[in-house]
Amino acid sequence: MKNEIVNDPSLPLSVPNKIYKPDILVQKAKSDLATSNFQPNHQYQDIIHTTKGNLNIEVSKKMVPRALRFMNSLIKLLRKRGHAIEIDGYSTYAIVFDEKINIRCREKSKRVLVKKERWTNYEYQASGILMLKMEADYILRKDWADSKNELLEEQLAKILTKLELTAKQLKKERIEAEEWQRRYQEEQKIKQELQDRKDKELQSLKSLFKDMKRHEMTVRLRSYVQEFKSHKESNDELTEDILLWLEWANEKIEWFDPMIEREVPLLEGIERNSLVETETKRSSLFYP
Length: 288
What we know:
This protein has helices at 2-6, 24-34, 64-80, 156-234, 240-256, 279-284; strands at 44-45, 47-49, 57-60, 84-88, 91-96, 99-115, 120-136, 140-145, 270-271, 276-277.
């Protein structure tokens, strides 16, 4: 991929000494840095930082022109390659192959021991070394910086190559993760459907047992009521009250019988198997 990029004459792989037609994001960053007095920490000396909504740049004031030239060239290179730049709060993202990669332009700091009259402390001072930091998915990280043999401006081809390779890796991992998630959800759906069928089957079996027991009890109740009636008849005790009771008992047996389940207004809301009033019915007594 690097050879493809290096050998493409249409790609602007060099950083000019002067910005020509600066990108709108670079124009905004320049204006922002011109008025910035933001310091990330009191220990950092001579370092200014762009504010929210601008390209993420943190350099000393004398390094600002160089950082802006570099970022302008990087943005133009990305756009020429079909990629994009996105600002989200304080973060700057290179959008490469639809994947977001965080980039930050920094000036390296050097740790310097500062001695005062009664105490010593460390400060971080600008080093004059410009660098670009990349981070993707909190794991993939890469830094490019000035070295003895190569300035950051001379590493655009390396940077673009790494960004594109990283984006392809991110895309591959994302597609694999999405496929795994799809298969997992499908497996869970199949398991749940099977479990639902098992639950339904068990519920139906329990209901069958309950209905069978109710049927047995219904047969016994009818036998008892018939014997009770016969006993009263044989003793010539079949009074009006007994006849009313027999009518009442037969109505309740038909209500209880799983093959009939006659509706009885006064037993509305009573569960036939447990003979317990349901919660829904009980609640409705208080909330009409």
